[in-house]
Each structure stands twice: as C-alpha cells, then as structure tokens.
Amino acid sequence: MSSSMLVVTAHVGDFVWRCGGAMALHAQRGVDVHLVCLSYGENGESNAAWKGDTQRDAVKAQRRAEAEAAAQILGVASLDFHDLGDYPLPDSADSVRRISDTLRRTKASVVLTHPEHDPSNLDHCRTFEMALRARMQAMAPGHGADFVVPPQVLCFEPHQTELCGFKPNVLLDITDVWERKWQAMQAMPTQSNLWAYYERVALQRGAQAGRRGKTAGTRYGEAYQSIFPAVVSALME
Amino acid sequence: MSSSMLVVTAHVGDFVWRCGGAMALHAQRGVDVHLVCLSYGENGESNAAWKGDTQRDAVKAQRRAEAEAAAQILGVASLDFHDLGDYPLPDSADSVRRISDTLRRTKASVVLTHPEHDPSNLDHCRTFEMALRARMQAMAPGHGADFVVPPQVLCFEPHQTELCGFKPNVLLDITDVWERKWQAMQAMPTQSNLWAYYERVALQRGAQAGRRGKTAGTRYGEAYQSIFPAVVSALME
Amino acid sequence: MSSSMLVVTAHVGDFVWRCGGAMALHAQRGVDVHLVCLSYGENGESNAAWKGDTQRDAVKAQRRAEAEAAAQILGVASLDFHDLGDYPLPDSADSVRRISDTLRRTKASVVLTHPEHDPSNLDHCRTFEMALRARMQAMAPGHGADFVVPPQVLCFEPHQTELCGFKPNVLLDITDVWERKWQAMQAMPTQSNLWAYYERVALQRGAQAGRRGKTAGTRYGEAYQSIFPAVVSALME
Amino acid sequence: MSSSMLVVTAHVGDFVWRCGGAMALHAQRGVDVHLVCLSYGENGESNAAWKGDTQRDAVKAQRRAEAEAAAQILGVASLDFHDLGDYPLPDSADSVRRISDTLRRTKASVVLTHPEHDPSNLDHCRTFEMALRARMQAMAPGHGADFVVPPQVLCFEPHQTELCGFKPNVLLDITDVWERKWQAMQAMPTQSNLWAYYERVALQRGAQAGRRGKTAGTRYGEAYQSIFPAVVSALME
Amino acid sequence: MSSSMLVVTAHVGDFVWRCGGAMALHAQRGVDVHLVCLSYGENGESNAAWKGDTQRDAVKAQRRAEAEAAAQILGVASLDFHDLGDYPLPDSADSVRRISDTLRRTKASVVLTHPEHDPSNLDHCRTFEMALRARMQAMAPGHGADFVVPPQVLCFEPHQTELCGFKPNVLLDITDVWERKWQAMQAMPTQSNLWAYYERVALQRGAQAGRRGKTAGTRYGEAYQSIFPAVVSALME
Amino acid sequence: MSSSMLVVTAHVGDFVWRCGGAMALHAQRGVDVHLVCLSYGENGESNAAWKGDTQRDAVKAQRRAEAEAAAQILGVASLDFHDLGDYPLPDSADSVRRISDTLRRTKASVVLTHPEHDPSNLDHCRTFEMALRARMQAMAPGHGADFVVPPQVLCFEPHQTELCGFKPNVLLDITDVWERKWQAMQAMPTQSNLWAYYERVALQRGAQAGRRGKTAGTRYGEAYQSIFPAVVSALME
C-alpha cells in the first residue's frame, strides 16, 4: 500500500503557506512526504532579499536554506530543487521527466500542486500543467515497467482564490499541526510579509470546516480542490 | 454519532437507478437509510402503465407498490411519499417543512438528491432546491431546539450528465451490492425500459473507478457530486 | 412528419427582433408557425406609448394591434396572447398548461424562446422556465394520450448577449426574408427605438455567417443556442 | 444627479459584515444610504438569542434594535424592515413592489445586495432575485411616471465565496471608515461569533487591494461583484 | 463542393472508439475521410503490447498495423502517421504545418478531433490546440493561394466526459454502420480492454438519441461538440 | 503618478478596431499611449494585399505603413513592431522580455490586450498569455530594481464575443473621439472589409452604454473585460 505523497510547487515558499499543514499532518502519521520546488522564487517572490547589490546566487542560496529549514520542520522525506528560474518559469521537458521519475520511485498516491488558473502568476499554471504531464509519463508502460497507478491530484489554495477559479471541495483540519506549520512559516523570513495573511487563511478555513465538523476543536484548516473523482467505498465516514 | 442517510427524489423510480447501490451498501453496514419521494411519477415516468382507460389512482398505486418493494430490497428504514404530482412537480412549503422535520428526526449526516440543473426535467431541479431549503430550515434554532448540524449534500447521476452540468467528484464502488441493486431495478417493471441503460451506467462508473482503484475487483459504480466541501482529517485513506 | 414551430415570448415585441427571420423563412416554406406572447409588454417595453394620461387598456390594445400586424407579415399561423402582465411577469401554472396544450395540438418539433439567464430582464428567464415546464407537461402520458415527442428548444438572441451567458451554436441565414422582417419591425412603431439596433444585429450575424458560408450572398442572420443535442444522421450537409 | 445608494439584505446582520464599510464611506461623503432588511434573521441567524423559552417576538425585537443601532453608527438615511421571516425567506410580490417604490423614491444609482448563488443559504439567492425584479419594476413606465434609470447592482461578499461562485471585480478601500464598521459590528452582540471572521475578511481584502493600490495606507477592504457593465468615461483614474 | 472530412487524433486508437461511426457513415456516402494520427500511442495506450523485453519499434509497428486495418474497414481515403511520440505528446510546428497542408489539399469542410480539456490526458488537449492552429494556417492567404474556407471543428467524446467539460450538442445516429465500427474496434486487439466500454458508450448515445429521434430504429450513437456556430438555412430538417 | 497606457496586439489591425477609441480618448487627455504589435498580420489578416505575385516584404511594409498612419491619428506616443509572424504567432521569450522592458520604462498602469480565449484565432490567446507573462517579469525585483506596481489588464472586444467567452464589465463612451477612430480605421484600407462591421460594434456598445448613462449624448462605445479586481475608493462616481 502506498504511504507516500508528492508536493510540486513553482517557488520555494509555496509549500509552506499552501499545504504545510497537510505535509506535517501526514508526515507525523508515517507518510513519506516528498517535495519538488521547480524554482527558488528568486526573481518574483524574494522581494525582501534584493537589497543594494545583492547577487542572484546569494538570493537563491538564502531561499534554498529557508526551504530546507521549513521542510525539516514539516518532516519532509526528500526535497528536490529544479532551479528553473521564475517570473516566468519556463516549460521544461527534462523537469517533467524528473517529476515523473520521482512519482515512479515514490509511488505517491496523491500529488499536491497549484490550481490550473492564475492570471496573476502564470508560474503556478505552468507547474500544474507540468505536474499533470509528469503524471501521464509516470503511468505509461512505454516509459518503463515501473509505471504507476495514476495518483489523485489535489490543488492547494492560491493567493486570491476567486481570481483563479479555485473551488475547494475538501477542507482539511490542521489544528493539531498548526504550531508546526507556524514555525515553518517563520523559517521563511524573506516572505515575512505573508505570515499574517496565511495565518488568517488558516483561521478562515478552520472556521468554515468547524461549522460542519464533528468535533468542536477545529480552529485551523487548509482548502483543496480535487482534479479527479475520488474512488470511495462509502459516502459517510 | 450520526448513522443515518436521507434520500430525496422527485419520482418513485429515481432512487433505484441513481443511488440504489449507495442505499444498499450503507443499509447493509447498519446505517438507517430514509427515503422521501415527492411524487409517484405518475404523469411523466410511468409511460408503460398508461394503457387504454387506466385511471390515475391505479397508476399511482402501482408505482407506490413498486417503490415499496424496491425499497425493501435495498434495506430502507423509512419511506415517505409526498404525492405532489409531477410533470411538473409544484413547489410546496409544506413539503419543505416535512423534509426538514425528517432531517431533524433522523439527524442524517448526508442527503442524496438530484443535481441542480436539468433542462429536460425541471422536477429534478425543483427537488434539489426544496432539499436545500429543507436543510436550512432544519438547521435554524428558531424552528425548534432540535436543529441539526448541516448535512453534506451529494447529487446523484442524472439521465444525461453533460446536459445537466453534472460534474461527479466521487465514484462509489458498489460491486458488493450490485445484485441487490439489480433486483431492486427489476422490482420496477413499469420502467423496464431503463434496466439496460442503468446497468451500463453502473458498468461505466465501475470501469472509471477501477482504473484508479486499489483493488482489482471493482466492476460496478455510482457517481456523485458533492455540493459542500468535505471536512476531512486526512487527504489519503 | 411535423411541420410546425412554436414561438414563446415574454412581451409582444420580442418575436420580431429576435426570431422574425426564422418565422418568415419557415412560414414561407409551409411550416405552421405558432406564436404565444405571455404579456403585451405594456409596463416595461412600451415606453413611447405612455404619454400624459394614457390608460393601461389603451396601451395593451395598441401593442396587441402591432403584434397582430407584425405576425401577419411574418406569416404566423396562430397567435395567442396570455396577458399575464410584465415587469415583472408572474409565474402561472395555467399559462404553462396552455402552452402545453398548444404543443400537444400543434406537434411542434422546435420551440423558440428566450435564453435561460438575463439579469436585466427576469421576464425572459421566467418565460424560458415556463416553456421548458410546458414541454415536460406536453410529453407526459399522464396528462393525456396526445403526448408529444419532446421538441428541440432553441433560444434566440437577447439584448446583451454576454450579460446573459448566451452562446449561439447556430447562425441562420435570413437574407431571403430580410425585407419581410424589416417590414414586421416597422409594424411596431411603439419600439421604433430598436429598429436600427436590430438591423445591426442582423448584419453582424450575417457577416459572421458569411465568413464560413458556402455562398457569397449571406447578408443577414439570426443567432440561436440549442438546449438539447441535435439528433442528426450526418455531420455535413 | 443621484446621490443615493440602496442596500437590500436577507437578514438584519448582513449589511454590517458585508457592506458596512461602503455604507459608512458613502454616508460620510453625503450620499443617502437606504437600507432594506427583508427579515430579522430570527430563525437562522440569531442562534445566541434562542435560550430556554425565548419567544419569537423577543428575538425579533432584539435583532431589530441591534440593526437600528448599527445602521445609525454607519450613517444610514432610512431603514425598512419587511419582516418576511427567514430560513427560508419566502418570495413576496408585495416586498418586490415595496423595494421598487423605494428605488423610485430614492433614485438610487447603485444597489448593494447578495450574490446570485449560495447553496448554503437560499435566502440570499431569493433576495438577489427580488432585488433584480424590483429594479425592473422601478424602471417600467407602466408602473408610474417616476420610473428610474436602471441602477448598477453590486453583490457583496458571501460567507464562503467559492461555494457561491462569487467573482469580485471591485475592491473597495475602507481603511478610513474601519473603526466605524468595527463599532457597527460590535453593536450586533447576537452574532459576536462573526466578529473575528469578518475582521479577517476585511484584512484579506485590504491586503489584496494594497498590492495594486496607489497609496501605502490600505489596510481594510470590501469586495464586490458588479452585475452590469460599468459605463465609464475613462479606463484610468 | 467539399466532400471531404479530416480526423486528427493523438494516438492510433482514438479514431476507432470516438468517431469510427462517423467515418464509416460518411465514407459509405462518398465523402473522402482523411486521417492523421499524431503518435502511435506506443507509450501510454499500448499497455498489452509491453511484455518482457518488447522493443519500442515492435510496439509501434504493431499499433500502425492495427490502425491501418481499422482504417481500411472504415473506408478511410488517406492515413498519415506523424510519429511524434506520446505521454506526453510534444508540441510541433512542423506537424501543425503538415496538418495545414492536408487541409489545403483535401478542402475538408469539417475536422473531427479531441475536446479542449482533459486533465487525465494532456495529449488530447495538445492535439486540439494543434488542429486549431493548423486550421488558422490553412486559411491564411500569406501561406499560399490555396487557402481554405475555415472548416467546422467537431470534438468527439473523451473517456470521461464530465472530467473534460465535454458538452455534446450533436448526437449522430450510427446504427447503420455499427457492425463496421465494431469490426474496426476488433481490429485493435492491443486495446481489447476498451471494446465493451465503447460498445456501451455507443448504446448510451443511441438511447439518448432515440428518445428524441424521428424513427424507432436508433440503437447506436456518437456524441460531438461543435466549436463554431453552424451556419444553416433552416432550423428544422 | 502614472499617466501611461500600454496596448499589446497580435496583428497590426487589432488596435484600431478594438481599442482605437480608448487610445484616442486617453492620448487627448495627456496620457502616453504606447503600442506593441507582435506581428504585421501579414499572413492571415492582409487578404486584400495578396494579389498575383506580391512578396511578403511588400505586404509587411504596407501593413506597417498603415499601422503607423493609424497610430499617429490616434495620438500614440510610441510604436513597437516585434515582427514575429502570424497564423500562427509563435511563442517568444524574447518578445515577453521586450514587453516587460516596455512596462518598466513606461510604468503603464493599464494594459489593453486580447481576451484569453478565441478558438478561431489562437494568435490572440498567445498574445494575452505573453502580455500576462511580461507583466510578471516586469514586477519581479530579481529582474531589476525598476520593477513596477502590477498594472490592471483590460481585454478588448474580439470578433465574435460569445465564441471567446468574452464578458465585458466596462463600457467606455467614445463618442467624443469617434471621428478620430473612424479616420484611423480608414487609414487601414487593406482591411476595409471590417469598416462597417466595427462601426456597428461601436454603435451597439454605444446604445448599451446609453441606456444606463448619465447623459443623453452617448452614441459610440467600446467594451472591455477587466482581469483583476479594480481597486477603488468609492462605488459611485
């Protein structure tokens, strides 16, 4: 049985804000959580790092270190930086193959990535498209006998949901691991401008989940949209 | 903990074709499955029953008997006929209140009903709207202290999915109870013209589920679209 | 074989601007074109008629006379005024039954009516909904043995297409009957403010059709959106 | 020139959470802000008020007092309670006429109301539909010579935006009147459970607006979706 | 007058399952049916062919032979393999030019291809996009004086219609050529796992078409979605 | 404060038909209007220029001269031809960088470009996508300290709005500059076949705007769809 999850993001920061709770929650339960960051987000999502005559390499090194620290806090099993550059993130057949190889090796049964549309950030759309292409490549016998059962794809929350046509159909209760997610967020001081914003996102999703939850304790949440129908053996838990 | 499910349909036949598998499956596991049929479908969905000088009451009695037989096969706990008439089904505040009362009494955590849109069958849209209104009424403290936690609403498959904008995000494996569903279908000879059609629907949904399923045995399925985000404590089973 | 068409509009003017070409074209070819106007449009679409102390009955009589004149020019076979009032047009089960009876009597194989959505004119949405309900009622054996094969429904063009989510998939060449449509428009002097507007609509649809047409002569057109899939025996003419 | 705005809500609380900032902002600038509450929200949105043997009239009186206090803080010019009841809110032709009369009297150039869709709260959809019907009635010469230029309709933010298909295209900077909105929120202790939630909504909208704003001071915002195209004389401010 | 049709598919199998009926039907009536397969589907849609140490060339040769046999059964006039590889299918400007040249040479008035969206199979989306680009190239005078009248584009049915947002507006009765389509399907033993699935698809579409058809004999069908409005000279057949 | 606007089009003709009014209007008020044409439209939108043995360079020179003349009439501040070729327009990272540099240099607060979807003209979709990518590149600190506040993007009207899913939310009154737009149109004799078509478009948009406008003088208009929410300080003008 699979006990592995793959997260694919455009920039180093995305996994913390958007699915850090899911990562910590599943890692804590013994799931191997693998992470692929297609770029360091050095151009467009490291504003605070560009001061005076800062060099590109220094910015990338700083963001890499932050990502490694946050990933460790969340319990990530493996971390792969593709270093494709960003704003814009280029398409890359090599990268698609590398994600595909990761899928074949990890047998992940679920992939977390960006939603399909985002007019304010085409890097996110590109990542979604590359992740889906990698999924195809991983399930094709012609690319090797280690082909996989096609995993579910869950899109995590973008910065402005309505702008992206994001329609979450899953609310995950992350109350138990909130402290860990909060620590991971703080391990990314270059984007400290997002701390309060994503704390509020977690509280809103927690409030929405709490209204229909079975326990009174839900305070923090994360929202996801599934791309493929879930195959289930019951309609009630 | 809730162990109850409510099914609300426009006509007597709908529950068998569209969610008979889910009903049998959950009943078999000890869930109380309650059924509300807003009409007998006597006008528009009993074509074979109208012969020569058949009277309306005879058609209604015949359809009622069929529904009772099918419901028994599926293991239904309670069955309520509202007898509103069909083609078209009228709006009814009384009926909304009666569904609301059923929700308060049964504490169902999930409601199965028709999807929101269907240009070929407005009775289905009306039923969806009445079920959602009943859900509101059931959760309002001002209508009595026995108000409920708002249940999930799952829409079952219409006759022509694309015409209705139906987008299933859940595929239920009903292989284990297929025989029972098939028997219930045959308990409705007035609509024998639909037997083969809905057997094929079940096989198609089974094939789609089987591609991504964990076991090799999936042969029959049913498709559902959730209206509200599911509140979950994990993203993998 | 059916050789009958039914047009259902909210106000008396609608049929001229929106499907006058189709009516003239089919009437000329021997199709019986039946027309139902649910209101005289006396409140909201007869602005020029309300002067000084004009009485409601006078306005209605004037609009009725205009509609009769235009219908005659277009070759209408029967004309039925329901006189429900407008702005807003009320729902009416009686009216639905009356449209249903017209369908049973005429055996129309196609119904032309307003599109489903129009935030600026809810009378149009109401008419669409009533026409679809009447279609159901007409096809139900329980309402009489003269039930019909369900007709296609084609929505004609609203005033602001994008506002209404109108997506035409049929462009009808009305060049041959344009003169007749233009005469019918001029038979409605109360809405002379719309003459130039709908002449331009016809020219735009003609230009769009002409780009992909087989003959060079297309100058005027009308746009339609089908609600149900067309059942065809070939994909090319 | 019009200097009047009309707000139409389903329940007494809605105007505070959803458009209290816009109300305070425009009132402060001399616009007459008129408010219509179709119900007191006594059944479904006054949970904290139903204790022991509380009577319906007491709950309604309490909510009315809260609404009057909040409206005064925001600078409302007139306040009209239709007392239709809620959960569910019934359709009412009388109420539509009354809103229409308010539009004719106030000559409001903009109407703020709920968005069209909300499966969790059909009272909101009903209100949207009644407001649009009232707009039609108000612009029809046949209902009186005081007919109006059709106002813009702006939908304010629902509780769960993605569930409602809410797509805001306007972000209003309410930083200057935030204190006033916050006071109005606190004047509604029956729904104190929503205070923190809607403070966070305002901060999120403020952050989104601030990213593209011209000044650095934007901290609080409100989101709106326009139903009709805006008629403008320039594309830049 | 054009009497030619062009089919463009991603993989060799697609034309049989998705539009084999239309191909046989039109070929039988004297239309020249041209077929372009962008890849052999060797990687992702030839699972049964990959056994032990099978070589890629052998798989491709096997699928090519199957496609040629099936095409012959359906009466195809020309068959062009672009051999681009699959899972994923790469973009190719050369291939677009080659399709464009085929369009100019054949003067096809209709193109059958995959629908625009399919998250489970991006090769299908790529093919749609390349076919539309080729259509542009074929209609541009700057690419040669043999430019064409822009053909209609009809999308055939994907594996999971709702997942792809497929909304068919045309149902083609293929009862007369079903035996031929069934033979063509059996000429593709590598994908024998799809035989029963697509037989059921044909039966479902036949049943849907039969409900509104003019004759009682409709048993098998195919569904299509048109991209461009159809230009017609009548609204009834 | 920004007083600059950027227009990005696929072909040389687009700016005249689609946003010539906006360009003239803002230029007349002192806004610097910058124009980028990604191709000369020599292949697909210069039909009248291809006669006998005309050479490509001659067609391009002719279209360039027309564009320069039209741009001068409209008061354009700068004009940049990227000469990428058309039908199809290729993707180009260089071009994206060049647009990005233009944005950084001009500090445009609004970008006018094609809408996202157009199945009949993929060059338009490509241009939209490249403009959005350039916007990202322009706002990224890692590409230079002269990064910009992200501009609004407004899509202008395509040839067939419904085919493109174009939903305008802004109607611009261009009555005051209509004569200038008309002159610019006539400066493009190669596309004289579009003169009457786009005169009618302007009249239809003018009529739509006039219905809700504040003055009686609106005769001509242009329609736009905003991609990002507008950040405003009031909901009424």
TrEMBL record, chains A, B, C, D, E, F:
<protein>
    <recommendedName>
        <fullName>GlcNAc-PI de-N-acetylase family protein</fullName>
    </recommendedName>
</protein>
<dbReference type="InterPro" id="IPR024078">
    <property type="entry name" value="LmbE-like_dom_sf"/>
</dbReference>
<dbReference type="GO" id="GO:0016811">
    <property type="term" value="F:hydrolase activity, acting on carbon-nitrogen (but not peptide) bonds, in linear amides"/>
</dbReference>
<dbReference type="Pfam" id="PF02585">
    <property type="entry name" value="PIG-L"/>
</dbReference>
<dbReference type="InterPro" id="IPR003737">
    <property type="entry name" value="GlcNAc_PI_deacetylase-related"/>
</dbReference>
